[in-house]
Amino acid sequence: MEDEDEGFPGGPYELSLLPNFGKHVAYKLWSDKVLQVERKMTGVSHGKKLKLSALSLPLPVDDNRWFWDPVDTSGLRPLLLTGYESISHGLVCALAERWHEETSSFHLPVGEMTVTLDDVACLLDIPIVGRLIEEDDLDHCVGVELLENQLLFTVEDAMEQVSYNSGAYVTYTALKERYEQLLNRCNQLVGEDLSEEEEEEQRRVRPACVKAFLLLLLGYTLFAGKNSKTINLLWLLAIQNLDELGEWSWGGMGLAFLYEQLSLTSSSHVGSCGGYMSLLVGWVLAHFRHIVPRRKYEDYERENPYVGRWRPPRGYSDAGHFRGLMDSMEHCHVIWRPYEHRRDVTPFQDVCWYSGWIMAGKQKMVRHLPERVLRQYGYVQTVPRPPTTIVPLAPAEVATAFFEFVVHVLSQQDRGDPVPEDEWWKHSDGYIKWFYRVSHPLIVNPAPVPEYIAPRPVYQEVIVEQEWVKHPPDPLQVINNMRVRVEHAMEIPEVASNPLFFNILEGLLSDYIVFDKEPVPRRRSRSPRVQEQE
């Protein structure tokens, strides 16, 4: 490990932002060629299990309002339309290597970016305002009681689950079997000629069936842990009262869970990543046009969750491939605000400006800091305040702060200036220089430097290469901007329904795709101002 006063090769050159960088996997990847080749990590995904067929996840017909009314009240029904059947484990691995717990963000050559509450709302169409669960992980006795009383397990089966899983967990297999048993029994208890005993059983079985389904759905999506075989019964606390299903910020808790799972991957020994991988991959597809080929889903309906707009391609399992693409990222590769053309479907919500702690239970408390990714909100990125200024709070205080988010949103003064319409990437003059001094935006050492050549610090080299965007725009960047506008225009209902306009735009888009194969030029500005920085 390098002397902390001198920093690390490739950055950070000072440790005010990332004091524990020496333990991060990115530090080892910089110089360990063997690790670069051999490092593998899988993203836990249950997308195939969300297929709506009798062989995967049977559902009652829409007429069964006893089932669908509470599901709709919870706001979780759109999750049924969000699961990718396949994801790129190489992409997840390369992306997780750039995650830093201190900032709750990915560190990229263009600066920090992250999955925000707005991303969750737009991609998944689930509630982001409401309560956060604050309880600790449950003990064995509470787990048995919940399985018995809420899901109608027998005492013996409940004790077997908790004992076998060494805690308050239930296997997906057992939970799915229980859900199917309850659903079958509900389908039998219909009609007007039920006995009093059958009516009483119906009143017990129907709520249990809904709860089993919701717990299964949450385990397949928002709260998929590294252990792909079990689901934490903690989430059963949030759904045990069907009358309160609409009070929870499922999006906020799901985002906190994803943040925490990404933070666990900072060690080179971790081989899997939990959290909702369809959300993570969908975020990449929405924000970047060069990392993964974006294959549009032809049957996508505009009012559905935006994550369903694309289908990720199969393959692409090599993490090294994605490291190279991310290391070469330029501003023109980023779609900073991909949802502006569909604000009529998912309006921006003020809670997205909440700056502070969010959590998914007492053990999963993380920072949500919009001031670090202002360009994703349409504002000029400035050097943000240190994340350590976010004072640690007790779980009950975090729950209260988020529920009363209006008091804790980023002020207009802290948001700064909106970005110009044609400069979505814009940052303050000192931001990139500061970022490359305190961060490690490149994962792989680009090339060894001969000993007799005094190397220029990486952050200064990148500043020189990126300063060109402050001068007259490059033609390829202009073309990329035009392409984005054409893509957005094609998704406007009035345009999509007009064959003449749509075909014209589709032809233009085909012409623009040719430029995807063209390398983005790296011009070096030699203005006096840039020379002074060297």
UniProtKB/TrEMBL annotation:
GO BP: any one term: meristem maintenance
Pfam families: PMD (PF10536)
Transmembrane segments: none
One GO MF term attached to the UniProt entry: hydrolase activity
Domain Aminotransferase-like plant mobile: 88-386
Keyword set, alphabetical order: Hydrolase
Record-linked PANTHER family: PROTEIN MAIN-LIKE 2 (PTHR46033), PROTEIN MAINTENANCE OF MERISTEMS-LIKE (PTHR46033:SF8)
Name of the protein: Aminotransferase-like plant mobile domain-containing protein
Species of origin: Medicago truncatula (Barrel medic)
